[in-house]
Amino acid sequence: MTASIGCSSGLHDVATAGVDQAITDISAYEEAAREAMRPVAAWPGPVGGPPAQPGVKIMWIACGFAAEGCKGPAEAAADAADALGWELRVVDGQLDPRIYNRAVSEAVDQGYDAVVLNAISVDAVAGAVQRARAAGVVVGSWDSGNNPSPSGVSFEVDQPIAQQGHNMVNYMVWKSGGNTKAYVTEAPEFNVVRGWIQGAREALETCDTCEIVREDKFTATEAATRVPTLMVSALRENPQINTVIGAYDAALLSALPSIRGAGFHRVRVGGFNGIAPWLQLIRDGQANVTSAVPMKWGAWAAFDNVNRLLAGEEIPLQNLPTRLIATENIAEIPQQGQWEGDLDYAAEYRRIWSAS
Description:
By secondary structure, the protein is α/β, with parallel strands linked by helices. The chain has helices at residues 26-36, 68-84, 97-109, 126-134, 161-175, 191-204, 226-237, 249-252, 255-261, 276-283, 295-310, 345-353; strands at 10-14, 19-23, 57-62, 87-92, 114-118, 138-142, 155-156, 181-186, 211-217, 243-245, 268-273, 289-292, 323-326.
């Protein structure tokens, strides 16, 4: 049983209600974290829709294959396109806005029906996307945190962004006994990362005895070089830090060995995404937690949205789930690959698309 020792309130997102609820003691942080660690039990997405539209050409632009969070959805896009019978081109964006823009322009020039951006801010491709929309191309995005508009993306696949940050902090407050002293890092080039971290900040503000000791920002290209040194320096300069909340799992992969190698074995380290290497580090007792979304499921959801728009129908909420994966429940997660959402999402979409 966990004692109440100083946090006056916390955050607990209830997915079905879509609201935050006040938490009044430490045991409630634990309860909220444990709820977030439970498996997804029922299909939350659409139950009907149009059959697969014929003769579609679609381009999938990934932020960069160097990051598993971008490569995995691209692989899933190939499976979804095959299920729909669509012609697909996948572009490795290599974390380079010049490649993103060139690919969108090529999609317009080559008569593509749709483009999906994966973990790419529409601001980085604003002119090219505006041209695509004017040409009648459906432009969607997944894991990008974009806001749909007439000249921007046609849709952004919905995911509970703030809730992922809340879940992370609920876990850290519980495990620290209400004494979370956090080092928070952010990668502002990714909209969803900003959303996760803002959710974490909001949750930490509910705990009177918790605080953010230090915050740093970095770019994706610095993840393997600057970030390990940055994090070790932050921990050495601020010995009160007992919690690291990283911008996303892949950015922590190089830093974690440096953190542990520098002797910071009791500092809890958590990230976001649920990629396979980070899950393995949790299994190995090196990492502590990740706040995950099923990234491959998101690719199928994006294709479902495209199919609906091409059929002249409105898109529904896809209601992608999130799950907190930590030391306590890592044994429930399959050994290989990213977390995929606990359900056979592909079968659900195939059923919808095969409807006559």
